[in-house]
Predict the structure.
Amino acid sequence: MTSTPTRSAGSTGLRAERVSRTAGGALVLDGVTIAPRPGTLTGLLGPNGSGKSTLLRVLAGVLVPDAGVVTLDGDPLGAVPRRTLARRVAVVEQHAETQVDLTVADAVRLGRIPHRRAWAPATAADEAAVRSALARTGLADRARRSWRTLSGGERQRVQIARALAQEPRELLLDEPTNHLDIQHQLDLLGLVAGLDLTCVVALHDLNLAAMYCDHVVVLREGVVVAAGPVEEVLTARLIADVYGVRASVTRPEPDGRPHIRFLGTAHEE
Amino acid sequence: MTLSGTAAARAGAGGVVKVVGVGAVGVVVLCVSVAAAVTFGPADIRVADAWSAVASHLGGKPSELSPIRDGIIWNLRLPRTLLAAVCGAGLAVCGAVMQSLLRNPLADPFVLGVSSGASTGAVAVVVLGVGGGVVSVTGGAFLGALSSFALVLLLSHTLGGSTDRVVLAGVAAMQLFSALTSFVVMTAADAETTRGILFWLLGSLSGAGWTDVGVCAAVLAGALLVCGGHARTLDAFAFGEDAAATLGVSVARTRLVLLSVTALLTAVLVSAAGAIGFVGLVLPHAVRALAGPGHARLLPLTALAGAVFLVWADTLARTVLDPQEVPVGVVTSIIGVPAFVLVLYRTRSNRSTR
């Protein structure tokens, strides 16, 4: 599913080391360390309020950690110019909204902003990147459609196309499948899993995580409680611990990936 | 792939040519509008007369016009028409920038309370005699506008700094300064002064002189450069501030720079011509409906449209009830609203097609 990492030895990609962050006086992240493996899809799991979104925003450089450090190839994010960062790390938000009447191609072209200088017109490289992003997300035939007329699933696809137009090596997605029906959830995660990028995706649905993620990191109240290959981490015991839910985890054929069947909340026993 | 690549590159170049073409047409329309507007009104002046007057003042051969007609052209009509063009361009661009930056379609150049601050400053000078004769009405209006903007920045920063807080702080400042103006006018002004102030509040270009034109044009040129340099940054705000940040935009700095530049330009324009409404609120929407949302195209075209629009609105304002003059703000709304509805109506269908 994932291709061999293409980066040179010694470059470490995006890492967070012991980052903490408070919001409104409460500690949302408490000494979180995460080092997504290059070229793989890492799932970020945990109940609501466990700090998934905050961790993604810290990784994206939108939020500055109160303690700890986020590094890109060993350089602290604070020392990386914003535009350089935006050419390297792209973000897809949970629910993108705009009042501007954009076409699909307009929205994808936004991804070229970090590559372009003020006053300069779009180059052939810009147009090629936009075309390639539209093709990879299966949107080439909808480039002239108005954003407003798109379904939720199509809108998320456009956001991924915009992110790809940035030509990043790291892609961060914050619950991109919320508000989507099951077909579009599978469709979207299949697309993300097929990308030759280092992806970190916050997810609610444990079975979706089990289907598509190589690794998972589980957060509870701002602390990493488990991290590793998805089949090792997603156990009935962890699910009971973190979510307070009884579950049975099986490994059905053909791929032997975990399948979670929920049996009820912990206090129903 | 390479073939379609060059086709796309050509299409891109064609887009640039098209924008430059539309821009060139706009500039020609503006020049023709200014030349024509100078000839409208009493005293039967032709375009050729205007040319010879301009030529003689710019160091060419002396014109054969009578000093009175020369004065009408050079001291009254031309500065007034040019100030209309500069104000129209400036207000429209400020509106376009504010709407994108604050992500609010109802934002206009006066959303930060700059116009009400200006009126309070002007009233303080005219009615209360603040400044002891040293500060002119224009200067008072300018200082009032800047105080209002400073108050808005301070308030929005204290309240949390998000864009909706900026808009709410602007509304608060607008209400405060309007109330102060009304209070001063009601308690201290006589009927004659009140009438003069009212005219100024609605906007008027009747007092235009060359100094106003020079100052406003210089500030407009600077503001256009800064805003033009931020055109792509403004595009990045389409999906909000976080999205802009992940596209490499320094959100806080951009907002401070653009709010300050637009507030400064608005303050200068309002001190020269009063609070001319409608142009900054509605023209950006009309141009966006026709030219699309990209700011590299939107900003220059909005400036041209605003300039042409206000030149004609002011020509109407001074000729339609001649010799009486209608406040130009009244004219902008009366002819602008139907035109705006027409634009919205005509662009309705192709905006909703799948």
Summary: The CA atoms of residues 190 and 211 of chain A lie 9 Å apart. The radius of gyration of chain A is 19 Å. Chain A touches chain B at residues 57, 60-62, 82-87, 89-91, 93, 96-102, 106-107, 110-111, 113-114, 116, 118-119, 121-122, 124, 127-128, 131, 145-146, 148-149, 166 (CB under 8 Å).
